[in-house]
Design a protein that fits this description.
By secondary structure, the chain is of the alpha+beta class. Strands 1-2 form a two-stranded antiparallel sheet. It has a two-stranded antiparallel sheet with strand order 3-4. It is elongated.
Length: about 270
C-alpha cells in the first residue's frame, strides 16, 4: 500500500513505498526535503487509494481516492466509525487489522525507536559488539594481576612457587569479586555493565521503555542465561543461538527474550 505525503514546500501530494517509511527524501518537483510518514501513520485504503495506483515507482504524481459505495464500507470494530471494507487500518482510531501491516509497524518502530515508540532507539550492531569487547577487556584487566602471579609461579615446574600460586589465586578471586561488584552496582543503578557504560548503551525493559533494573538486567539476563549456558552439550547450542539472535530484526538475543529487555543507544 503506497504512503501519501504532502511536500511542505510546494504542497504537491506524492506517494512512496512502504519500505521508505520514516525516511527523508527530496521532492521531485521543488527538491525540498520531505519526511515520509512511518507505517503507523499511513491512512487506510480509503484515503491512500488502490495498490494499482502506486505504479511501482517510489514517488509519482498525486492521485485521487476512488469513490467507495456504501455497500463497500463497514464499521471499525474498535471505534465504530465507517471505513472502507478493504481498509487495513482505521483512519479514525488507528486500529490495524492486517497482520502483515502490524508486523511492518512493529519492525519499523523497533528498528528506529523502541517497542512502544517513545523510548530510546535500539543500539546498532557496532555498539553492541564494542560494548561486549569492552566488557571482555575489563574482565581481563581485573584478572591480569592474578594471572600474572600464577604464570610467575611456574605451575608446570616440578616445584612451583607455592607463595606466588596462593597470591595469584587470591588476586584472581579479588579481581573477579571487584568486577562483579562494579557490574552489579552499574546494573542496579543504571542498567549497564562497564562496557555498556563506556559505549552509552543501556538495558531497557521492553514493556515500559524504562531502565530494566537489577532483576531483569542481571538475574534474568545474566545469571539465568549463564546457568542455561553451563548445561553440558545443550548449553553450547544455546549459547551459539543466543549470539546469532543479535542479527534478528529486533536485535534481541535469547537472554533478552528471557528477560523481556532490549539494548538501547542513549548517547
Amino acid at each position: 500500500m503506497p504512503i501519501s505525503v504532502d511536500c511542505p514546500q510546494c504542497g504537491k501530494t506524492l506517494r512512496a513505498k512502504d519500505s521508505a517509511a520514516g525516511r527523508m527524501a527530496k521532492c521531485p518537483s521543488c527538491q525540498g526535503v520531505i519526511t515520509i510518514p512511518s507505517i503507523d501513520e499511513v491512512y487506510d485504503a480509503e484515503e491512500a487509494g488502490t495498490d494499482e495506483a502506486a505504479s511501482g515507482a517510489e514517488y509519482g504524481d498525486s492521485y485521487d481516492s476512488p469513490a467507495i459505495p456504501e455497500e463497500g464500507r463497514r464499521a471499525c470494530p474498535a471505534c465504530g466509525e465507517m471505513i472502507a471494507e478493504v481498509a487495513k487500518k482505521c483512519r479514525h482510531c488507528g486500529e490495524i487489522f492486517d497482520a502483515e501491516l502490524k508486523r511492518q509497524r512493529r519492525g519499523t518502530q523497533r528498528s528506529s525507536r523502541s517497542r512502544r515508540g517513545n523510548g530510546p532507539p535500539i543500539a546498532d550492531l557496532g555498539k553492541r559488539f564494542l560494548g561486549a569487547m569492552a566488557d571482555g577487556l575489563a574482565a581481563l584487566l581485573f584478572m591480569a594481576p592474578g594471572i600474572g602471579l600464577v604464570i610467575a609461579a611456574n605451575p608446570d615446574a616440578p616445584q612451583p612457587d607455592e607463595g606466588l600460586m596462593i597470591a595469584g589465586g587470591v588476586a584472581l578471586f579479588v579481581g573477579f569479586l571487584a568486577l562483579l561488584v562494579i557490574n552489579i552496582y552499574l546494573l542496579v543503578t543504571r542498567s549497564q555493565t562497564i562496557g555498556k557504560y563506556l559505549m552509552n548503551t543501556q538495558i531497557i525493559d521492553i514493556e515500559t521503555d524504562e531502565p530494566a533494573g537489577f532483576v531483569k538486567a542481571w538475574v534474568l539476563r545474566s545469571f539465568v542465561n549463564g546457568l542455561i549456558g553451563a548445561i553440558p552439550y545443550l548449553g553450547s547450542c544455546y549459547s551459539l543461538i543466543d549470539i546469532l539472535m543479535i542479527f534478528s530484526e529486533e536485535r534481541r538475543c535469547l537472554h533478552d527474550q528471557i528477560a523481556g529487555t532490549y539494548v538501547a543507544d542513549i548517547s
